[in-house]
Amino acid sequence: GKKVKKAAAVAPSSGKPPVCADSIINLDHGDPTMFEAFWRGPMGERATVVIPGWQTMSYFSDVGNLCWFLEPGLEREVRRLHRLVGNAAAEGYHVLVGTGSMQLFQAALYALAPPGGAAAPISIVSPAPFYSSYPAVTDFLKSGLYRWAGDANAFEGDEYIELVCSPSNPDGGIREAVLKSKSGKAIHDLAYYWPQYTPITHMLAHDIMLFTVSKCTGHAGTRIGWALVKDREVAQKMNKYLELNTIGVSKDSQLRAAKILETVADGYERQPAGATGDASLLFHYAQRQMMQRWRALRAAVTASGIFSLPDEVAGFCTFAKDTVTANPAFAWLRCDKEGVDDLEGFLREHKIITRSGTRFGADPKVVRVSMVDTDEAFSIFVDRLAAMK
Ligand code: PMP
Fold first, then answer.
1. Closest residue to atom 4 of ligand 1, CA basis
2. Which atom of ligand 1 lies closest to the CA of 223?
3. How far is the CA of 326 from the centre of ligand 1 (A)?
4. Which tens digits make up the pLDDT trace of 79-120?
5. Residue 298 CB-density burial (10 A; 0-12 exposed, 13-18 middle, 19+ buried)
6. Structural domains of the chain ordered from first start
7. CA neighbor of 235 nearest in space, from 110, 332, 48
8. Does this model's pTM top 0.90?
9. Residue 331, beta-bridge partner list
10. Which of 44, 101, 241, 336 is in the most buried spot, having the most CB atoms within 10 Å?
11. CB 269 within 8 A of CB 84
12. pLDDT tens per residue across span 297-316
């Protein structure tokens, strides 16, 4: 008889175009495609999810939970991962899910700002160099609740919300809140507080902590982030924002993110057969890759002679149980060569796209360069950099 052919899966896009030796290399965004190689290995198959046509149709996931659209499987895997890595306290915290941590950041601004009717919008600050999306997103809708007020180091006053990004995007530094007023509030953006980027030195326990699978596992396209929130009322207000903004968060994405996180933790706790060396250990694999990239970049900077980078720092990582170097997701690259006043423009002439320091509240002699792009793009970048005199 005739074979009945199954409908072909909808083919996913191939993402970014491939690069070759004379391509424009775009390292402007921190698109974490370098981790694809890990997921193409033995763990990739284990992280597969299949969602039949009748599943995930309801808006609701868990009507008894404060965050009623949070998939219980995702909450379980988020808590398990924090227990495994030891980077943040999740016990006693509410877990909220967002469409990327970018949505949760906005939910947190809404929740912490004094309710409408306040005399003036509350000031949103972050120490320079600050993540360029903070001013852009804060002021995009010209909210009457909050307004970007720039560098936290230059801020005077007691009423503010400070954005603390640690390790810092753009410069990789470990940060704590710089403002200490009792009535001030802080949002901790911990997108990069994972072992591949920095030694895990403390189990953090701040009031609002934001994380994302984008930087943890590399699944930026899944658009899933989570918040750990101590205070119930703040969690409720954040949830209100998520409800009004997008009526919850894609369950399909949550299930996929849950599976990815489960696979990561299983890699450590169940030692799957057929995966040798680092192939089942995401953080160890990624840490090694990042370390090799930083070595290659530092060698290129030395070969060129016109650039400089932040000093290398190391610390004891309670997760790796070893002293390891920090390998930030971005290089904060400076050029003090005479005549190069606009480093972004100078690199663009060499077909390398980066983001100017001016976008981060810093000067134009420095740029942010993504360290997490594909192997091909990264290797062309370091070769070009080494040749610049
Ligand atoms: N915070 C920081 C510091 C980031 O670098 C990014 C992504 N570039 C985000 C938040 C947003 O991540 P998500 O993909 O989860 O929205």
1. 191
2. 14
3. 19
4. 999 999 999 999 999 999 999 999 999 999 999 999 876 789
5. middle
6. 25-43+280-387 (3.90.1150.10), 72-267 (3.40.640.10)
7. 110
8. yes
9. 369
10. 101
11. yes
12. 999 999 999 999 999 999 99
